Amino acid sequence: MTRGTRRLGLGFVAAALALAVTACGGGNIKNNASASGKSCGDFNIAVNPWVGYEADAYVVGTLAKKKLGCNVQYQNVKEEVGWQGMASGTTDTILENWGHADLVKKYVKQQKTVQEAGQTGNEGIIGWYVPPWMAKKYPDITNWKNLNKYSNLFKTSESGGKGQLLDGDPSYVTNDEALVKNLHLNYKVVVGGSEAALIQSFRSAERNHTPLLAYFYQPQWFFQEMKLVKVNLPPYKPGCDSNPDKVACDYPPYHLNKLISTKFAQSGSPAVTLVKNFHWTNADQNKVAEYIAKDHMSPTAAANKWINANPDLVKSWLKGT
What we know:
alpha/beta; 9 strands; 37% helix
């Protein structure tokens, strides 16, 4: 996906940024200190709207607060807003970046106000999924070429006589509109809302054996609860998605990475090293996300539980701070 906000107008972005940013960037050093004696000060982490990202943010933020003495601020923002915050120096880091070649070009390569900070270790997959009962009853539905044959099953009051393809948070940028058009599918993309709403839709569809075709992604704790089945779109090849209006291929694999503002990178904060050292697996993220979303733990409690269970990995992240 590029999980960004092409749908957001600049006015909305600016307004959201103004509301979300409550503290100065990493360059605003206070008298907190890490074990090495380095000051940390304010550490502003963008938190994008899916629980896996929340897991990243609170594990890193909890360590920064407890071990480095940082004054951690969590900024609940859409993706593009976080990029703008880093460019202005009011946001220090995005801990899970899903591509955004246009933003990389603008802020990393041209303005040089944002820097890449290494891989998270998480591997991202985006696609269209059906609940298990559908794949069992209609095994050929997992081939995109057969979707039109089943489009009547997916009709809803919102899909205008076509099959419904349910999308997630309206800030997620997907290729779904282009895919439906360019693959000549008799479907309409309907925006469903949050990650939690998508999960509830899958639960309801499986429980009641109602048809559902929806956009979803990994890493994602929900796959431990329900083995959703991915629809095979035309295989991704490098460059097949270079023109957003002409996309007719599956989403690429995403090697998720971290970003930091240049202001933060130059601040001397030990949290810079922590961000760069942070590296875990899909299973690690899913475990923390499950604590939050399924076990209803607070993000901080979930982070502490995982941190306490993984002392060796945590120690490697803190090395050099």
